Structures
1.
Amino acid sequence: MKNINLNDRNTVVIIGSGAGGGTLANELCQQGVKVVLLEAGKKQSTKTFVNDEWKSFSQLAWLDNRSTSGGWRVGKDFPNLPAWICKTVGGTTTHWAGASLRIQAHEFKALSTYGSIKGANLLDWPITLDDLDPYYDLAENKMGVTRTNGIPGLPGNNNFKVMYSGAKKLGYKKCNTGRMAINSQPRDGRGSCQQLGFCFQGCKMGAKWSTLYTEIPAAMATGNLELRAGCHVMKIKHNDKGLADGVLYADEHGRKKLQKARVVCVAGNSIETPRLLLNSATKMFPNGLANSSDQVGRNYMRHTTGSVYATFDKPVRMWRGTAMAGIIQDEAKHDPSRGFVGGYELETVSLGLPFMAAFFNPGSWGEKFTNALDNYENMAGLWIVGEDLPQESNRITLHPSDKDQHGLPVPNVHFDDHPNDKKMREHAFEQGTKLYQAVGAKDTYRVPPYPSTHNLGTCRMSLYPKDGVCNKHGQSHDIKNLFISDGSQFTTSAAENPTLTIVALAIRQAKFIANQLSTKII
Amino acid sequence: MMNKQKESKRTFIKLSAGILTGTLIATSGLFSVMAPARKWSLSLTALPDNVAEAILMVTRHIFPHKKLEDAVYALVVKDLDNAASKDPAMKKLLIDGVAMINKKANNNNWLSENYQDQNTIILSIVNSDFFEKIRGTSIVSLYNNDMAWAHFGYEGASYEKGGYLNRGFQDLTWLPEPPHNISPPKYK
């Protein structure tokens, strides 16, 4: 691994090593750019991952204190755990289920397509599907997405068989085992999926794409990367011209260090990214960096979610095999006749017994709860992933008094469902319930949203600086050498799982940054 | 012995000083996990015997899995006893909580009430910190152990066994098989 001097002013510093940061690091290193990659978490491996939900949760999840407010159920059930995302090398690509879907053309034009909606802060993306398609191609090839590049789909498990039979009965046409960044056959030096069933706990086969064992080692191999794990960035620094010139971080021993930088890219996920910009406020930038629009931290989106579980009189054993084993896309269209704008995907989901107990209906007890768990072997499940609308008041702010282990204000996550979100969730709950009833469910259960895994939009891209934080390349409108490189960039959430888009944007951004560096614009 | 096993499970809890013990029911699926032992015991470090026994039964009321062994519920007691040994305030909360339900019972003895009367008393304290502490502890402790997994049929870690690719991930036969363009054959 390359050693990059703390005073080297010619390096790109990337904060966060997940889908955005890990990919961006590799893409820049491949183009000969020197990169310091700072990751707050520790490094794990396929060897150290554990097939145990609670143990893995302690190993991978971001457990630093956070607070919540607003009317959302997650804030009541998990007041200090608004998001289920990771603090480890590879970020949440260790935990994600692998669903790799392109955002649809109309979803990039949410404002034009849906029109102005009361309470929503809708905007069109400054890019279109045509702009991003070439990068989606590159991302799918890089990640080995099934049903692209001649890669066969994965075999569906028992949970999928139940979904598929129900989908057919409901007349759905677009149901299959999905586009997944999980090897259905050996590829790219990694083996094929053995259907372990612990996708959320870090794939011990390495069959699921994660920057931990793909992008990051590839970047290392170029000799241009220095990865520093256990390094929590506290502040981004700037010079008197208002350009970013370094980052202050606490290393694994808690020692404060200042890394000089030519370019700073923030990819800390949609809670930590705005938190860092806000925590970096100075006299020159009193509202935080890149925040002349006052949009930093706003428009927080987490997808309209929920799950439907159903019990049958015969075994399903849904935990066997991939967590996201199949998808129904018929409802992902924009069809306002359903009473809401935007659409949603239905995807199988399964939880092991420990997490089923914890997430089934948080706070509940008694016979309804125990009857459901008594039928755990006979249970099938699906997860709703729908577009939620950006609202200015849904936002990440700094807590006025609570501090983290580094003395920094913790982030508060405020969220209220928009009426459109509620209507969509209700529709999806009903469809999911009908689906399982059509194949003979004994009981069906509406399960409330889990802590958010899809965190989006808090530094959104916009055509005009007044509407958002960064431009179509993720470059902040205010500071030309400061980039947003994760899902915070999303102008709207769309209905699709976000990782593929985060990766495609990172590839595109790397090309832009490399060009700007070589032409000495930044 | 067989006759005894048909009796109420309650009679299987034997208290000696500082130890909560019981015997597994013969038909229980837990023998695969517990074998060859059939007796279980829990040494208490902070809670008095009668408090521990009451808490085990309170847990059964909050999460009433009729066929789940006391041995599994005892794991909740174990975790609460542990918490009580580290935190005097926790110990007081639990001891006072049991005193509270005893006070609502005949003869100041909640455990001696029949199940229905016990349940009525529990329903009257659902907003107490005592109830919430037991509920919140149970939601993890009760379901995160080998015995519970064996009981509910959950199979736990699979990596060591090669996953489910050749061990039943597609063994559901009560519904039609999806076609291969929908769910392709597995890689060989």
Note: The CA atoms of residues 127 and 472 of chain A lie 6 Å apart.
2.
Amino acid sequence: MIGKIRELAKRWIAEGKTDAIFGLKEENGHVAPNLFIKKSELERLVISPNYSLCYTLRPKNSNIFSLLERKYPNLKIGVVVRGCNERALFELAKRDQVDLERIEILGIACTKEEALECRCPKPYPQNLLVGERVEGVTNDDNVEALLKKTLPERLAFWNHEFSKCIKCYGCRNVCPMCFCQDCRMEKEQWVKTGVLPPEDPIFHFIRFYHISERCIECGECEKACPVDIPLLTISKLLRRDIKELFDYEAGLDVKQESPLLTTLDETLIKRGE
Amino acid sequence: MKLILDVKQMSEMKETSANSKKSKDDFEPKIIAFTCNWCSYAGADLAGVSRFQYPPNIRIIRLMCTGRLEPEIVVKALSHGADGVLILGCHIGDCHYLTGNHRTKKRIAILKRILSYRGIDPRRVKLDWVSAAEGYRFAKIVTEFTNEIRRSGPNPLKELA
């Protein structure tokens, strides 16, 4: 599979379809995001470990595309994306963080094992070019367990979970959908500073609410959490709710506007209005 | 003669109300109400001017528009000791800023879901519409909401703060 991806990437550069390829590069045993410009370099292109590439795509004023755009306005970049990366790209494009016209999507499918590990509902991108698509994981044990609990049980459960929080901001920092320059989770006005665990429930509520309708279920927050708080549980439930309430699913349709940016009859509220 | 009877009746009424209070552990809910400047605050004003009775448990905070109300504010109110949060805005279509209440309606719907997953009764938050002419409706909503919160008891988040 990796051979096919490298081959395709090389062909894109050779044919001039893209000027460069953005993907993971292995060097001296370490893997990091890299912009491949030469064809020969592409031998180092890898797809594992499953590092969230989208993390490097935000925020707008410092993501790789914006930085390059200043110097090379017409540069076209091919990006090696998995299902979650593509959903993130679509959501970021809607919010004016990346310009999809400068991006060529080289979609790759995840394996069954990878999908199970991430509990991913859609482990393949829409622009699938390499790999076989496998079915996503639909049921989630954490979600079902939470739904079975009564309100006081949920309260006790989360009180315990959030009391473990060490306020490392890992969940926020790794989230491909968090791109504000000024974060409310850091503001004294909203969250008491200098106390551990952070003020509950407001600290975690801010994050859950802000990514409620845009969460793409990549699960990076949960993977990043050093104290294993099952953060994805609430985000997964919210994704279901947003579908039920507004018939909207983040990252599937690049043209459909977020329900929080539209009126009740789904006309877009323009900025400054 | 009649006056004395009235006083007697009143004192009896007081006693019964005091008894019923005791059975509910003397719980008087604190309710924060966010009203918009153009419709609901004027509606509250009208309720006052028209002398419609409603429970004194609410503390009104006036906003220019319910579209100003971030859900974070509601969560803050709850975690700082409010037993219920009442949000009153203009009827859909009547917003002074055209679409402010559209946004609030969507936001509060999401907020309620998060609260229920977190283990907080989403009925502690209520969004409704009151126009400037609906003083009676304002009094009615406040009365009903206060009774509902009184039934559900103190906010469990208070102990956390």
Note: Strands of chain B lie at 31-36, 58-63, 84-89, 125-129.
